[in-house]
């Protein structure tokens, strides 16, 4: 499976540098290594959710209890979680660090991913959610830390889009 | 059983715990009985009170967390039962008031009115301890038992579809949010 192990490690190390203690996730191809790393890490609780909406609630609870969390989701999971992002995270001023695998965009071969890929950025903009593109492993640590810093300062959801260039080796 | 009587009965057990409720009648009635800074009322995002409770329980393992859910909310997020059961934090108590109705939006019947058994769903999802209560005394007993023990518990309490005259709470939701976070910070 040509998901980049090296770049997944870079992303995981960046999350660790952000003192993330709870990672919620729903499996998806590009996230397999990240999920395994979280599962193998005794310092991190990996919460495998049935649907991404739950992860917004879990992160909100963790924040109110003073614990840093991150969400690993595919962009279709982001689409599934829009209501709680709006009516829990944004309504209640809850910071979220959302790492979103950006499927269905440039280079995508799976037709079923493309519709979600094309609406992801317009929806992030419509919701006023700041987003980094992560395509260079050298940027990862800085950008993930900066995303967390902005989320906490603004008490808002912030997105980091994990692009094909970063996640997929061909 | 009236939900307000049930809440009165368990209030002494609740008042010093971290409590997360759904919106609507539950929130308004608990608020009226006696708001505490350690009570959070999720005024939207139906279905996610239990997910929030799970996030808090995992983050504060030395403190008890009580979620007060409802049938309409739980039906919107049934997957939460399988997720809670998977991680089964022993400091989490999940109370479900089942009035078989979406009371605050016109009283339309939920699927529990036509046979869906939420206690059965909880058991089938592998929640380790599931109880049912149909009187305030039985609910109080179940709640006290769950708080004294260390096992994730779901208690389904059937209540009448009768709510308060007013759902008004003199507590802006952001005030509740920041007050609650500070109350959790102050816990040792």
Task: Give descriptors for this structure.
heterodimer, A: Rossmann fold, six-stranded parallel β-sheet, globular, B: alpha/beta, two-stranded antiparallel sheet, 8 helices
Description:
The complex is a heterodimer of chains A (170) and B (188). Chain A is of the alpha/beta class and 170 residues long. In chain A, 52% of the residues lie in helices and 18% in strands. A six-stranded parallel β-sheet of chain A has the order 2-1-3-4-6-5, sandwiched between helices. In chain A, helix 2 links the parallel strand 1 (22-25) and strand 2. The longest helix of chain A has 18 residues, at 137-154. The radius of gyration of chain A is 14 Å and the shape is globular. In chain A, 47% of the residues are buried. In chain B, helix 2 (25-34) links the parallel strand 1 (18-21) and strand 2 (39-41). Chain B has eight helices and eight strands, in the order αβαβαβααβββαβαβα. In chain B, the strands form two sheets. Chain B has a six-stranded parallel β-sheet with strand order 2-1-3-4-8-7, with helices on both faces. Chain B has one domain (3-186): Rossmann fold, CATH 3.40.50. With 188 residues, chain B is of the alpha/beta class. The relative contact order of chain B is 0.20. Chain B is 43% helix and 19% strand. The model of chain B has no long low-confidence stretch (mean pLDDT 97). The A-B interface holds A 21-22, 45, 47-51, 53-67, 69, 83-84, 87-88, 91-93 and B 20, 40, 42-45, 47-60, 77, 79-80, 82-83, 86-87, 173-174, 177, 180-181, 184-185.
């Amino acid at each position: 499976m040509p998901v980049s192990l090296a770049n997944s490690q870079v992303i995981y190390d960046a999350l660790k540098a952000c003192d993330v203690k709870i990672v919620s996730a729903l499996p998806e191809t590009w996230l397999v290594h990240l999920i395994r790393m979280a599962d193998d890490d005794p310092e991190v609780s990996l919460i495998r959710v049935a649907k991404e909406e739950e992860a917004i609630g879990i992160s909100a609870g963790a924040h109110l209890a003073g614990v840093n969390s991150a969400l690993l989701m595919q962009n279709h999971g982001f689409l599934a979680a829009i209501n709680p992002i709006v009516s829990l995270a944004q309504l209640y001023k809850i910071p979220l660090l959302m790492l979103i695998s950006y499927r269905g965009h440039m280079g995508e071969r799976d037709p079923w991913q493309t519709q979600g890929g094309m609406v992801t950025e317009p929806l992030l903009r419509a919701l006023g959610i700041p987003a980094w593109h992560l395509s260079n492993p050298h940027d990862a640590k800085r950008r993930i830390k900066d995303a967390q810093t902005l989320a906490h300062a603004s008490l808002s959801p912030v997105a980091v889009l994990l692009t094909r260039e970063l996640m997929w080796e061909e | 059983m009236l939900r307000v009587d049930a809440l009165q009965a368990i209030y002494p057990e609740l008042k010093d715990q971290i409590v997360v409720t759904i919106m609507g009648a539950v929130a308004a009635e608990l608020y009226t009985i006696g708001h505490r800074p350690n009570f959070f009322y999720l005024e939207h995002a139906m279905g996610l009170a239990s997910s929030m409770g799970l996030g808090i329980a995992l983050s504060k393992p030395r403190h008890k967390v009580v979620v007060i859910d409802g049938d309409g909310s739980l039906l919107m997020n049934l997957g939460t039962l399988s997720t809670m059961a998977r991680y089964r934090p022993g400091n989490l108590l999940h109370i479900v008031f089942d009035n078989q109705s979406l009371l605050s939006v016109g009283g339309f019947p939920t699927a529990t009115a036509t046979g869906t058994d939420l206690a059965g769903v909880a058991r089938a999802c592998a929640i380790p301890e599931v109880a049912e209560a149909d009187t305030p005394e039985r609910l109080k007993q179940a709640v006290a038992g769950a708080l004294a023990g260390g096992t994730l518990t779901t208690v389904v309490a059937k209540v009448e579809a009768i709510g308060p005259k007013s759902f008004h709470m003199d507590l802006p939701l952001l005030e509740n949010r920041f007050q609650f976070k500070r109350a959790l910070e102050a816990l040792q």
